[in-house]
């Protein structure tokens, strides 16, 4: 399945935005209690927001989260209510949300969990799943769970997805069902 570059860019930008958001300076840092006897919170942010601008000064993407918590020993970072907005040159906005996200110890692998949703605000395209893993270095994304893709032209459901954002390809793995409604 060949996916338009704009669709793939939002997934890539969303993954990169998570990683960038974790590099925010601890301006609003508070000392949150550790949630484990064996791990220590060494960074805790509330209402974290990151804005990135392009070379002409236009807003390019935004990453935000209700909380960002980094665990020292596990070297993982948890985000609650993450939201990523990416803007293309034509004014299209892509919005990616989830209930939680986790940046794993390798610093490149990101897991978006629970109510994951990617929306193209201009074309009305919506992609939903409950879990997706991405890698900011390789730009590979995947899920083994159900995925739903809705647009004004129809609806596609499948179980599992693999994507290579560098090659602009998404592969729906099994039980693919589509309904097309001509305009």
What does it look like?
Helices cover 9% and strands 56% of the residues. The N terminus is likely disordered. It starts with a helix and ends with a strand. The chain contains 1 helix and 11 strands. The chain is mainly beta and 183 residues long. The protein has a 6-stranded antiparallel beta barrel.
**Count of DSSP-assigned helices:** 1
The general outline is: globular
Helix content: under 10%
End-to-end distance: 22 Å
Fraction in beta strands: over 45%
Order of helices and strands: HEEEEEEEEEEE
Radius of gyration: 17 Å
Spans of at least 5 consecutive residues with low confidence:
1-13, 15-35
Which secondary-structure class do the elements indicate?
mainly beta
Mean pLDDT: 79
Count of beta strands: 11
Q: For the report, how would you describe the main beta sheet? A: 6 strands, antiparallel, barrel
Question: Can you tag this structure with a few keywords?
Answer:
disordered N terminus; mainly beta; globular; 11 strands; 183 residues; 56% strand
Summary, kept brief:
The protein is 9% helix and 56% strand.
Protein topology:
Elements: H1 5-21, E1 41-53, E2 59-71, E3 76-80, E4 83-87, E5 93-97, E6 100-103, E7 109-120, E8 125-135, E9 140-151, E10 154-164, E11 169-180
């Amino acid at each position: 399945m060949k996916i338009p570059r704009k669709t793939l860019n939002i997934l890539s930008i969303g993954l990169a935005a998570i990683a960038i958001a974790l590099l925010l300076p601890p301006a609003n840092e508070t000392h949150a209690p550790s949630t484990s006897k064996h791990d220590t919170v060494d960074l805790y942010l509330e209402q974290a927001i990151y804005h990135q601008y392009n070379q002409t000064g236009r807003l390019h993407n935004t990453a935000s989260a209700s909380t960002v918590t980094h665990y020292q020993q596990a070297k993982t970072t948890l985000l609650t209510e993450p939201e990523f907005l990416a803007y293309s040159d034509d004014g299209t906005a892509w919005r990616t949300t989830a209930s939680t996200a986790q940046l794993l110890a390798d610093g490149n692998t990101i897991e978006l969990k629970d109510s994951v949703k990617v929306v193209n605000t201009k074309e009305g395209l919506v992609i939903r799943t409950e879990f997706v893993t991405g890698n900011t270095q390789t730009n590979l994304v995947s899920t083994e769970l159900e995925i739903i893709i809705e647009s004004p032209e129809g609806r596609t459901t499948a179980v599992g997805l693999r994507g290579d954002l560098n090659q602009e390809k998404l592969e729906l793995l099994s039980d693919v069902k589509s309904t097309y409604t001509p305009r």
